[in-house]
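Forwarding these from the shared drive since the link keeps breaking.
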Amino acid sequence: MAETTATALRPAPAATGEDRAAPERPAAPSAPRRAPRLALLDGLRLLAAVGVILYHYTAWHHGNWGIEPAKAAWPSLSRFTLFGNMGVQLFFVISGFVILLSAYGKRPAQFIGSRIGRLFPAYWVAVLATGVLIFFIWPSMGQRLSFSDWAVNLTMMQGGFGIPHVDGVYWTLWAEMRFYGLVLVLMMLGWVTRRRILAFAALWPLVGFLAPMIPSNFIRQALIPDHAALFAGGMCLFLIYRFGHSPMRWAVLGLNVVQAAWLTGRTGSEEAMHLVGYSVPEQAYWLIVAAIFAVIAVLVLTPLRRVNLPGLALAGALTYPIYLLHEIWGWWIIRQLSGHLPRPVILAITLVVVGVAAYLVYRWVEQTVGRRLGKRVTALVDSVVALREPARGFAERVQRSDSRYRPAPRVVPHNTGGITRGL
């Protein structure tokens, strides 16, 4: 079986005034060298997933601990895990970075195949497993759903049709899918170049502010207005990582940080009160969002990008199945054990069970079915003339456009997952 690969691009040195002023033209290629893995991002993603899990288990308003709400069962811990839902914001920023990293210089067919192969097999397992739980084992949890809703959830597009999610955490996947769609459109148009991506990252979130005034629901959905600045900020970090520092790139990044912080503060403060029961000022979420961008910038723009510790690649690979499986199955385990064991023991058991289940999905679904599906989808899309012809020469055009700033990308095998496999 062929190895799963991902394109890793070596960061360029900071752009000088001459570089910025000079026209883009091909440069003589230099000898390629192995790009850093950015392995610490894998560990950061797993920490974000753990934060989300603890938020859902110990802070979010459910009564599965035998007392309602959950914060009553964890009065001290919940004051910290209350902020675990900010792991989603971190996911979106990282996605803006790594999805552009994995798409840069690729054909649209490769991008489509890699995304479908990565996302859907584990997702299908999670939807089927959760559906079995809420329809046949714990039917009170599935009262608002029908079997047709369950079937539509297999498409991952239920959010676009107003159909309830089988598991509430799937709402983030609909946001991710829309972002992937926007990146695909940019690829099809040949606009995945440093200047056009920077312009897109500056204008997209600003246009998102106009979403309430747009009559078309399709366009409003496509703009992802509540989270556009997070994705766009991640794209700016990629441009800085890939092409070096410039005042304009940092200015656009700063603009997105401000927008993301303001939107997150508004919604985060409301959710803290309605979903947990704590009053949190908006300014706290401003600081969290700024810290998220700062941490990612440190990990990808400093020598820390070269740090690689054992287990980090596996940690990154497990993040997605852990996220998919943790919520409703975790609540069910907590509900079954509550009253029989101490709460810390129940929490530990639940985390271990979810982690083991996630590893099994990663090992026997993603590493087998996912890889095969990705290759077959890529071949299928390549065979469709309408998609193949506009993509002809795309990678070469991007390489010529940006060859002044760095040599051609080198393909680095990723045997055990990694950031470009993630959400």
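-- next protein --
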Amino acid sequence: MYATLLHHASTTTYMPQCAGVPFQLECYRPKPNRCRITPDDTPEKAGTSTHQLQEGDVVLFATDGVWDNLYLKGDILEDISAKMLKTHCWKKKKDGTIAVSSEHLAAAVRDASGALHTTLARAVVAMAKTESMGRTKARPPSEKWFGPHIPGGQKDDITVVVTVVTKDSLNPSVPKPAAH
């Protein structure tokens, strides 16, 4: 595995209600859910964090339909690493570390036939969907609620957003106002 995990806000961190009812950021009229708890997860209660990004970093946001079915280190990081290496955006150096190819990265992000971030997001969605449809190997549960290594898939919403950091995104040019 080549990718390194810098931060992971796990579903157990934001699962205050009960099993299968993760932290939900939305504004709605309070009404009891299946756990007989009135949700009160307003945007003001959201967790935040700040990270220094560098060229070649891959940032992934996903709903619990992904985290309930895929192991971060065993499924997601390995797949993303393989795709970043296959596209030559990352290159493995002799010492085992990764170097970023600015040229390949910029081209892959701008590829009209399948931008890199779109390709990575679709791959994670496809893996999560496949695993949610009834697999036999253990899935990564929230051990707090379900206990360790429960077999079978967990059908749930699957949403993934991926961004890949490029030099341009680190140093965006500020557009000049149009002349009147």
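The chain has six helices and six strands. Residues 7-50 form one domain.

- D.
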